[in-house]
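Entry type: protein chain
Record version: 2
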Amino acid sequence: MNSIEPAEEKKFVTLSEAAKINKVTRQAIYVAIKQKKLKAYKNPTRWIIDMEDLDQYKKMKYSRSKSMHNGELLFDNKKGYYSIQQAAKLLKVPYQKIYYATRIGLLKACRKGSAWIVHIDNIKQYQSCYLNKMISNIDEDVS
């Protein structure tokens, strides 16, 4: 006769579970809730988050790779623009070394807003002029 289909149950997670799912700290989830970037509900003792809301938050979450300045992508790798951290990864050196090289003028970089931008040509020049030179000096010292 009349079959009544059960309503779809909503899946909720705790603050800790949401943090694990997003690979962030509980504090980061809590801050997102307080900034109203993530919907959450307070039951008597703890925060609970609807999985749909968590998925929505994941899609809208800040990502440095999507950072924009005056409508342009800041770190557009296709055009050869990299962040300090990306340049360090490419060169397999600590990011502090890259910051130091920019500060003393060994590596040319420019600022867009609060971010440092390094072009791939400058990364290659730094690698050939300074990093490879340092490696050859170490090889000479060992011989």
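Comment: The helical segments are 15-22, 26-34, 51-60, 84-91, 95-103, 120-142.
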